[in-house]
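Propose amino acids for all 700 sites.
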């Protein structure tokens, strides 16, 4: 049977019977594979670039020096490691009465830092940055420009840290893992980890954060992360935090999620077009082999033998076409990269073999789902078709067999999407459009039959007769073309929406300065200065420190929750706020904004999920000894990538009348007024100004 199938395959190839099917399969697999290789490299590149915000692939933070056994295990697994130690301390310049001091965030780094991303330095404010892979040399430090302004010194000046005096070697422009959280309010001073001990700044009881940075191949990093988490759970280790791209950067997670959904949609549309192409090619093959099947039946072959012959033939064609399609797709993805060169980076990681294997499997699945129905129809060709060739093709179990194709198509969509909801919605949308386009095509053919008499030219009458002689094939072709055009137009529209969403989430005019610790009596003066610097309608929000103590009258503590993030949220103070209107980039997703006639609270939806909060729950906060209670009346969705001022919990003004408040604002400082921060710091020493311009650059 296999030899006979080979002979049939050779004969059909010479006769041109298989070329259309083979070309359709190659095109289908090439489309999926090219998108697959492109998506694979894009995802790897995005993940690689996003890891720059961690400075590593995995980060272990602790209040005590990281367990040396963990370090040894990481090295044994082939991971690259680096260390940082971060803590606040005073930086001093000058001697005697001329000395000045400034609270700084010291960061001691090992030689390999950072493992992902690069440091940028300069020697003079306003001059171009220089990317470097080095760290501060022994006896030198790199500093934020704010240090120079606050202490009125320049590069080359001495700076005293604890018992050691260092020389300022460079200005620190970009620090990849600085982060967007308010962890490092104070300006940075970076030194070599080898010099830290000589400062004698780290003593018993010092508030120090130790970080172990790790980088390596994704499987190795994931395996090590699982091992460390098991060690932490087994030994019940406290004060240890594990951060990865998935857990540590909500703004980058949102960006990657949008990219993944869009690129998955590309695969979805490719799968849809591939399914239609293979189905049409298989139907054409079936129609051209009806007479041959009837002859085989007359020569004594059973239905199972006929099915077996054509299954072998299709399997060989499927393997050859899928492999060739994967190879064509691999080459085509370079064309995609070249075509989209202005949109994507050229230094993307090399592709893996997974998209090629997925393309081959997809080609075989398409063949099974959309070529099997015609094969099952061939097995039912009657003997007497040899005599009565005008007999219609058999239609046994058509609904069941094409149901298999539909299920295969839906399965491919789910696989390509990687998301059940997205895959099912897309499948339902395309199936609905298929039905709608089919109905419109049928009505159009009916109307053409009525209008046939209006055409006098023989060519038009002949064309209309040809369309109506095979209405089923005509409708399928019309629907296929309509779906293809719809897919291309949909992709174009979605691409525009995606780019627009990215630009809106981290727009060009996103705030690049945060100012905190504004006192109530300074509000008017600071607002006036911001307006004079070209900042129209600056938004200043009250910020209130409060600790969540009770939920619905039940006292809570870190032991109340199992999740590490929930434990950390409960054991620290919240940055609360109060305001009349819904703040920028906030969307009410449940409940209603308060009316300020009684205490009410609005909670960010992610916090509500982490702490198992819902509408109606009563929250109790301890605010500088005062107790404030309010029920949750609304849940908000925040756009973390917008870099606007965001609060987890907002209470209405009536509930916060007598609470101590400072104020916070975020704005984009025009380059012409770049000295505003220095002026504010000089005139209002209590202010803390955070420059997040480099973070905005990385996100964009």
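Proposal:
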């Amino acid at each position: 049977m296999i030899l006979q199938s080979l002979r049939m395959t050779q004969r059909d190839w010479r006769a041109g019977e298989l070329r259309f099917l083979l070309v359709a399969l190659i095109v289908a697999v090439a489309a999926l594979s090219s998108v697959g290789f492109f998506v694979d490299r894009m995802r790897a590149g995005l993940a690689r670039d996003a890891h720059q915000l961690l400075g590593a692939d995995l980060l272990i933070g602790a209040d005590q020096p990281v367990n040396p056994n963990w370090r040894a295990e990481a090295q044994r697994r082939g991971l690259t490691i680096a260390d940082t130690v971060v803590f606040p301390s005073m930086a001093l310049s000058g001697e005697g009465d001329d000395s000045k001091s400034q609270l700084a965030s010291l960061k001691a780094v090992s030689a390999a830092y950072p493992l992902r991303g690069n440091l940028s330095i300069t020697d003079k404010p306003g001059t171009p940055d220089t990317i470097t892979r080095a760290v501060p040399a022994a006896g030198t430090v790199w500093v934020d420009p704010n240090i120079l302004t606050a202490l009125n010194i320049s590069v080359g000046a001495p700076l005293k840290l604890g018992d050691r005096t260092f020389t300022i070697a460079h200005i620190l422009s970009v620090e990849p893992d600085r982060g967007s959280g308010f962890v490092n309010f104070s300006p940075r001073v970076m030194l070599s980890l080898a010099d830290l001990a000589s400062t004698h700044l780290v003593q018993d009881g010092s508030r120090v954060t130790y970080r172990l940075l790790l980088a390596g191949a994704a499987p190795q990093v994931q395996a090590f992360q699982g091992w460390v988490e098991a060690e932490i759970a087994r030994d019940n280790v406290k004060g240890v935090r594990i951060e990865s791209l998935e857990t540590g950067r909500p703004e980058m997670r949102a960006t990657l999620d949008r990219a993944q959904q869009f690129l998955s949609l590309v695969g979805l549309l490719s799968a849809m077009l591939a399914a239609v192409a293979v189905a049409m090619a298989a139907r054409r093959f079936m129609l051209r082999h009806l007479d041959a099947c009837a002859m085989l039946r007359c020569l004594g072959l059973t239905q199972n033998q006929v099915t077996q012959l054509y299954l072998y033939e299709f399997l060989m064609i499927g393997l050859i076409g899928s492999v060739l399609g994967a190879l064509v797709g691999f080459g085509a993805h370079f064309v995609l990269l070249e075509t989209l060169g202005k949109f994507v980076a050229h230094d993307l990681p090399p592709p893996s073999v997974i998209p090629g294997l997925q393309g081959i499997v997809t080609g075989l699945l398409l063949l099974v789902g959309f070529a099997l129905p015609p094969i099952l129809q061939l097995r039912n060709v009657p003997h007497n078709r040899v005599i009565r060739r005008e007999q219609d093709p058999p239609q046994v179990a058509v609904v069941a067999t094409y149901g298999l194709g539909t299920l295969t198509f839906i399965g491919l969509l789910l696989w390509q999407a990687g998301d059940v909801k997205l895959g099912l919605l897309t499948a339902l949308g395309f199936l609905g459009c298929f039905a709608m386009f089919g109905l419109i095509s049928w009505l159009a053919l009916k109307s053409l039959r009525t209008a046939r008499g209006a055409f006098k030219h023989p060519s038009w009458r002949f064309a209309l007769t040809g369309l109506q002689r095979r209405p089923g094939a005509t409708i399928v072709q019309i629907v296929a073309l309509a779906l293809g055009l719809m897919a291309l137009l949909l992709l174009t529209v979605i691409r525009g929406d995606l780019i627009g969403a990215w630009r809106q989430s981290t727009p060009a005019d996103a705030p690049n300065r945060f100012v905190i610790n504004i006192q109530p009596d300074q509000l008017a003066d600071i607002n006036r200065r911001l307006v004079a610097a070209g900042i129209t309608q600056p938004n200043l929000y009250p910020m209130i420190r409060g600790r969540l103590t009770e939920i619905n009258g039940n006292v809570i503590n870190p032991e109340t929750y199992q999740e590490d993030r929930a434990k950390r949220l409960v054991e620290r103070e919240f940055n609360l706020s109060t305001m009349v209107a819904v703040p920028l980039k906030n969307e009410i997703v449940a409940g209603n904004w308060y009316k300020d006639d009684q205490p009410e609270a609005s909670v960010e939806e992610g916090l509500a999920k982490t702490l198992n909060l819902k509408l109606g729950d009563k929250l109790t906060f301890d605010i500088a000894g005062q107790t404030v209670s309010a029920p949750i009346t609304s849940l908000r969705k925040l756009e973390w990538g917008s870099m606007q001022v965001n609060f987890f919990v907002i209470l209405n003004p009536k509930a916060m009348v007598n609470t101590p408040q400072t104020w916070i604002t975020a704005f984009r400082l025009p380059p012409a007024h770049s000295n505003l921060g220095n002026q504010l710091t000089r005139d209002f020493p209590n202010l803390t100004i955070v420059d997040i311009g480099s973070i905005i650059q990385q996100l964009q």
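The longest strand covers residues 80-93. Residues 2-49+253-418 form one domain.
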